[in-house]
Amino acid sequence: MRLSTPAAPGTLAASVRSWLDERLAEGSYEVRRIPFSALEGWGFEPGTGDLRHADGRFFTVTGLRVTAEGRSWEQPIIDQPEVGVLGLLVKDFGGEPHCLLQAKMEPGNAGTLQLSPTVQATRSNYTRAHRGRHVRHLEYFTGASPRDVLVDVAHSEHGTWFLGKHNRNMVVRVTGDVPAHPDFRWIPLRALGELLRVDDLVNMDTRSVLSCLSPARHGEDGVAEIHGWLAGERARRSLRAERTPLADVRDWHWKPTEVRRADGRYFRVIAVDVRAGAREVTRWTQPLLATPGLGVIAFLAHRAGGVLRLLVHARVEAGFANTVQIGPTVQFRSGDRPPFADLVLDAPPERILYDGVQSEEGGRLYQSRSRYLIVETDPIDPPPGYRWLTPAQLGALVRRPGDVTVQARTLLALVDLLGLS
Fold first, then answer.
1. Which of 190, 211, 232 delimits the end of a domain?
2. Are residues 230 and 334 in the same domain?
3. Average pLDDT, the chain
4. Among 64, 79, 116, 347, whose Cα sits 20 to 30 Å from the Cα of 190?
5. What's the rounded Cα separation, in Å, for the pair 188 and 209?
6. Where are the beta strands (DSSP E) in 157-224?
7. Does pTM surpass 0.85?
8. What SS3 class is residue 176?
9. Segments forming the whole domain that contains residue 153
């Protein structure tokens, strides 16, 4: 059995990078942009113009007509109603918990291989709709005994690009041997903070599952009142999102190689041809959403009585099934800067607790990357829609389905694993 023993500070990241380089050299990976006409099994549906697979599985790029917070717009969006499994195996070695991580390629990944959970699979993957190989280690999650399940909670993906999409985030404890495989490696849980300091190394799904391990601890008082605040935000905020044929979406233009807005903002729909020797399927074509530029995602933080507090924002996003979720203080990619963006971007170095680039979901998004920051500030009287939470309070909310965005979950994982609280 492969065992990653605890490494001296600063050496683990180099060891993991060397392992990923080894796996990259052993595999055969290529992602090429192609015109929509070269997609195999995919096409624009007559009448609606929706981009879907011929057998109706996987996902569909459709249109969405949105009215929210006094604004109206139309956009393409990914509709994938099936619930995927993001599963992390945990085992103690010498009394220290280790996580079994996978060197996994996704077609949209920056850097090709990133550290994914033990299992990262859509329902189409694990039911073998693609007629590919069995998803390795899936049985530990589909057949887990309740006493071994440490975490099992459904969480959303990006509400800007996905329509109501959720994944089952699971952590399962094992005690026996797990079959070794060169694409998997046991890594000490305590050392993952070092890996999170490396740009584009730990993928979004791993960060999401790790956030669910946020420990129960002193400081969770007031969570019931926070639930009331969130319910109130959902009641007072407005979101109406209706599916509409992709062909009817206004202000977007169809070209042989992409669907894009005339002004080039927000994102584009593209097509790729993928070759990946280590995947369950070794070659396929598919659509992706390509997001321009580098996003900015940040928590403002301050300490009161020695306790770290994070300024959260009740966010409305078009694809949220429940209208509002708790998100970061600042989140934007292009266009006008939102409140507090200047405070984050103009912060002096001594106030920056974390500053790194992390990749977003690579299975449906192409080269989507964001700059994540945690910045200390003086106390701020929060405006409507914002409030201060402790990491403990936010961790308690993450243990409930659908309350906390994937971006805020990444930041919580950073707070916990970097020991910032």
1. 211
2. yes
3. 92
4. 347
5. 15
6. 166-173, 184-188
7. yes
8. coil
9. 81-211
